[in-house]
Design brief:
Uracil-DNA Glycosylase, subunit E; six-stranded mixed β-sheet; alpha/beta; single chain; globular; binds uracil
Length: 277
């Protein structure tokens, strides 16, 4: 494009894609929880894009009869969805069951815009479990956590202390990609929390590594900045037993701030030492 040319529609789309807005969702924010009880809007006030998303949510197949009911909470209040998520997550006796429950869980609006559940990757019997925040575009496409640019860096970081996906297990707080890679809202994280807690309980690792501040805050309840709290061992109760947990910088942050890698390196060495001890 010449410097003073009027940008074309294609340029605009490229700009949006480069900025991470690569999912067509709608023109207005949608409160899917409020939508269920809302009276039908007069035709003139209806938003066709919103209605399409609503239809996609409602069209999803009912969950299998063998699984605990998690369907009726679809688009219910966040509290009702969180209660239902807790009951559903608790009922999972294995990781396979937990994944199956998530596949049919309708209580989190993120499911409507994500392509699939990004459940976990690695060795479910690993001694180390790492938890990030939420899948991005690459993870949404492949259905596996940390396979994009930050995942490649994570693999290198793990390799530096002799670990790989056969010796660790990886998951996220939220198993669906938020549209346009936005941060999950506190409500979305709260609804998904029982699932990741149960996932940790079922993997039963000896060490939990929180990747980034949202994971640290959500799982460890630490409110301090991650620049202060990273690298400090704390106790995490899995529901069955106490294990050791540590927070470190998220690989996506390290890609943006390579100078901080030296601190992440210290955290990795602390993990390596703990594993050997
Ligand atoms: N960032 C995350 O927090 N999780 C992923 O799976 C990918 C990127």
């Amino acid at each position: 494009m010449m410097p003073f040319d009027t940008p074309s529609a294609r340029d605009l789309l490229d700009f949006y894609r480069d900025a991470g807005a690569d999912a067509l969702v709608g023109e207005e924010p949608i409160d899917r929880f409020a939508a269920v009880d809302a009276p039908t809007a007069p035709l003139a006030l209806r938003d066709p894009a919103q209605e399409r998303v609503q239809e996609r949510v409602q069209e999803r197949p009912p969950r299998a009869a063998a699984l605990p009911a998690a369907g009726p909470q679809a688009l219910a209040s966040p509290d009702a969805a969180a209660v239902s998520a807790r009951a559903a997550a608790k009922s999972a006796a294995s990781l396979e069951e937990l994944r199956a429950i998530l596949e049919t869980f309708e209580g989190c609006g993120l499911k409507a815009t994500a392509s699939r559940v990004v459940f976990g990757d690695g060795n479910p019997k690993a001694r180390v479990m790492l938890v990030g925040e939420a899948p991005g575009r690459d993870e949404d496409i492949e259905g596996l956590p940390f396979v994009g640019r930050s995942g490649k860096l994570l693999d290198l970081m793990l390799a530096a202390i002799g670990l790989d996906r056969s010796t660790v297990y990886i998951a996220n707080i939220v198993p669906w990609r938020p549209p346009g890679n936005r941060d999950p809202s506190p409500h979305e994280s709260a609804i998904c929390l029982p699932f990741i807690l149960r996932q940790i309980e079922l993997v039963d690792p000896d060490f939990l590594v929180c990747l980034g501040k949202p994971s640290m805050q959500t799982l460890l309840g630490i409110k301090e900045p991650i620049t202060k709290a990273r690298g400090r061992w704390v106790t995490f109760n899995t529901g069955q037993r106490d294990i050791r947990a540590i927070a470190t910088f998220h690989p996506a942050f390290l890609l943006r701030s390579p100078l901080q890698k030296r601190f992440a390196w210290r955290d990795l060495l602390a993990l390596k030492k703990a594993l050997a001890g």
